[in-house]
Amino acid sequence: MKSILQILGIFSCLCYCTLGQNVSVGPDVVNIGVLCAFDSTIGRVAKVAIAAAINDINNDSSILSGTKLVAQMQDTNYSGFIGIVQALQFMEKDTVAIIGPQSSVVAHVISHVANELQVPLMSFAATDPTLTSLQYPFFVRTIHSDQFQMASVADLVDYYGWNMVTAVYIDDDYGRNGIATLGDELAKRRLKILYKAAIRPGAKKSEMAAVLVKAAMMESRVFVLHAHDDSGLAVFSLAYNLTMTSGGYVWIATDWLSAVLDSVPRLDSGLLSTMQGVLTLRQHTGNTNMKKTLVSQWSTLVKEESGGSGFLLNSFGFYAYDSVWMLAHALDAFFSSGGNISFSPDPRLHAVAGGALNLDALSIFDGGMLLLEKIRKVNFMGAAGPVKLDSDGNLIHPAYDIINIIGSGLRTIGYWSNYSGLSIVSPETLYKKPPNGTIENQKLRAVFWPGETTTTPRGWVFANNGNELRIGVPNRVSYRQFVSADNQTGMVSGFCIDVFAAAINLLPYPVAYRFIPFGSGRENPSYTQLINQIVTDEFDAVVGDVAIVTNRTKVVDFTQPYVGSGLVILTSVKSQGSDGWAFLQPFTIRMWLVTGVFFLIVGTVVWLLEHRINDDFRGPPAKQVITVLWFSFSTLFFAHREDTRSTLGRFVIIIWLFVVLIIQSSYTASLTSILTVQQLTSPIRGIDSLIASDDPIGFQVGSFAESYLVHELGVSPSRLKSLGSPDEYKAALDLGPRKGGVVAIVDERPYVELFLTNHDRFAIVGAEFTKSGWGFAFPRDSQLAVDLSTAILTLSETGDLQRIHDKWLSTGPSSATTDLQPDRLHVYTFSGLFLICGAACVAALAVHACVLVRQYSRHVAAEQSSGGAAISRSGRRSSIRSFLSFADHREAQCQGKGSSKDPAALAASGVSSFTSSNASSMSSR
Q1: Which residues form the Ionotropic glutamate receptor C-terminal domain (predicted)?
Q2: Which residues touch 667 (CB under 8 Å, ≥6 apart)?
Q3: What percentage of residues in the chain have a pLDDT greater than 90?
Q4: Which pLDDT does position 335 carry in this prediction?
């Protein structure tokens, strides 16, 4: 019995030890610190939410059983220095974690303290994207980073088709780093921040007004306001007074504004009137059970905390509430893993100890690394939604509500999430579907913009508050049909000017502009210098016959080309008369030779096929040669008199006559063209022959042709000669290279075509060797260049562009041509016909040879049977001669010899004789 009791005692001890290992045993009290700005929109709400979370945790037996959270709250008042002092005070009291700080500026400072003493810093409102776990491993962000908020703003800008924004922000860590992230996100979408309007922290209203006035002078009308609640409201009030919230403006405020508006029990109509049509973002929170409970208790919690001064719950309050619960879950896991709360002196602080700072009281939290690990592994459903950190230390599922301020309230027009972008469907619904961030899937509800309009603002105006555009135009002295300026009246006209005016009239907004002639008026100006006037801000645009070339596109933006252009070669040409040998020109030498050879081949083939059965192809050798030649070449005129009796011969002659018909028709057409159409000749055939020569080359003054010939084609500058007018063109070409002129002129096609309308002894030779066009030039990233491009395309589609062209550049007959060589027929043109004819000849000869060999074999067999042994061995040596003799004899004679010697042979060859006689009788008919 005693032994049994001992065994039971040992078993009970083992069970107690086993159970003890699985029970969370922690201290009675855990000290945590809370840092926030009590006198702020976010701080007031966060203070109440944190107190509520601590109370709920201490009353919940399922978590931290037996351990109470004790929070010490301190007011940082947005001061980094005060935040450091308060954080150090927390460290003197064995604080294991700090909830906060609220400010990104304070977080940057005290994160160094947290890293040194290994105390986790859990911020529910420090959204600065540069607060990363790489630099600050003990900083834990329990709200979404501004990296995602700025991505949502960039998607909004891209969605509405704006290309640039003006950023208005508080110039501290929070504002500066947030706007830098916005610039990065815009750049990913090929957008940009045009101007950064930085406001000094604590700036007076007069300073803010000066910043806003300067921002209003810029081109962009899309403003992104990233500020704190007090400074942000002041900016809207000043912008309202400066009429910067009227029609045509766009304001996008980050989540600070929604926090302010959500916290106010009753929205002030005066406050809302300063921000009508504004878009703002709100940290998205799901409809969870914890959220419903907190909302239902909020009014009671506020009365207990503030003594009756009411304020509502905003999204930052939910994240502050979840931060405390996140720490509680991490502490529960910390204690379950055997962690305990203990502190050790910091040897580096001990080295600088002394004085009144009492640094010896600061110590390192020994379990800080383990607690930090547990915090990063927490996973539960909180008030704002799922609470879980990804590998980068960011909360999962970042999302924002997009709110439009209308009248006396707020209206949600959609959502943004990094899962599917912009949508009118809540993120919780989208998480259940495959991600779809395509452009077609991006949707938002209608927006009421500033000025009480639903039409999406253009988002930009002309710089300097809409002053007249200074448009430079080339003051040309030649080809004034394109653009010309009257130096006395200042009037500008021409084809290019009319196109610009027609395009401007198609824009949905008015544009004030004035033309400024550029150039001396004595010669055409340099177009490179004209374009540089945009770079130096002398002109706001350039309108004229400006070619779009690579070097120019590097410094300015061009519209869609309104005229196709490219460099061509203009040269003088001479008429080439027909001489006595013009009849040989339709065919090349090779074509003549191949055709003659085929005449002989076909004649020979027909002779071989007809020789044994047709008396027209028999006779003395000289007669037969003449017959072959006569028959061959007489087919050219279809005048051959010799009759073809064999089926193979007729087959060959039909194919050949078809070939002759095609060749004869082509020859006749080509010769007619040569004899009746004027042929022009020039020593220059194209750009290659022009470069290869050493003769002078002309170009138009001010054109990019000079630079292209020298730098791209390697032409020596000494060969180039500048020409200023069509008369100089004509004189230089008439003189020629030997008398001080030029061999050719390289110029753009529109000028050359206009020149040719009045000069008929010149022509374009070769192909166009550059492809470009004429466009209107604007500064880089000019929105007006984009809108005018659309207008030019509209002019082209409606036919107005062609009508303007016909008005100024109506073309008459010209001598333009790109090929001065007469059209000659080559062998490859008829290669298919020659191939068919050759194949027919070969096939006919093959069949004829087979029949002839067969007849010869029967003939030999008949002779052997009649002659017996009288045939000697010498017959083998004469077999070839015998075969040729057999082939030369008329077919009827060969059969006759066989029948006279042996009746049996005659019977054996009866079929052959019958066939020959039938063929002969049909031929005679």
Answers
A1: 470-811
A2: 586, 587, 825
A3: 46
A4: 93
Element (H, E) at 34: strand 29-36
Q: Do residues 239 and 215 make contact, with C-beta atoms less than 8 angstroms apart? A: no
Dihedral sign, Cα of residue 852, residue 855, residue 861, residue 866: negative
For 90-175, where are the E strands, in sequence order?
A: 97-99, 121-123, 139-141, 164-170
Q: Render pLDDT for 413-427 as a digit per residue (tens, 0 to 9).
A: 999 999 989 999 999
In this prediction, residue 699 carries a pLDDT of 92
Quick one: pLDDT band at residue 357, thresholds 50, 70, 90? low
| Nearest one of 423, 399, 518, 432 to 470, comparing CA atoms | 518
pTM of the model: 0.69
Residues in contact with 556: Cβ distance below 8 Å, sequence separation at least 6, in sequence order: 531, 534, 535, 542, 777, 778, 779, 780
Torsion angle defined by CA atoms of residues 832, 837, 838 and 844, in that order, rounded to the nearest 10 degrees: 150
For residue 774, the cross-strand partners are: 547, 563
Check if the beta carbon of residue 314 is closer than 8 Å to that of residue 302.
no
- Euclidean distance between CA atoms 656 and 840, whole angstroms: 9
**Looking up tokens 């030890």, which residue turns up?**
17
- Alpha-carbon distance of 291 to 320, in angstroms, equals 12
Residue-wise pLDDT for 889-911, tens only, equals: 666 555 544 444 443 333 333 33
- Only one residue has tokens 């950023």, namely 167
User: What is the predicted pLDDT for the residue at 22?
Assistant: 41
Q: How far apart are CA 50 and CA 43, in angstroms?
A: 10
| Token pair in block for residue 507 | 């824009």
β 744-748/567-572 pair status: antiparallel
- Predicted local distance difference test score (pLDDT) of residue 890: 67
Residue 415: closest CA among 428, 430, 427: 427
Length of the chain: 925
CB 126 within 8 A of CB 148: no
pLDDT digit string (tens) for 617-671? 666 777 677 777 777 677 766 656 666 767 777 788 878 778 888 887 887 877 7
Task: With residue 212 as reference, give the H or E element that holds it.
Answer: helix 205-216
- SS3 letters across 415-468: EEECCCEEECCCHHHHCCCCCCCCHHHCCCCCCCECCCECCCCCCECCHHHHCC
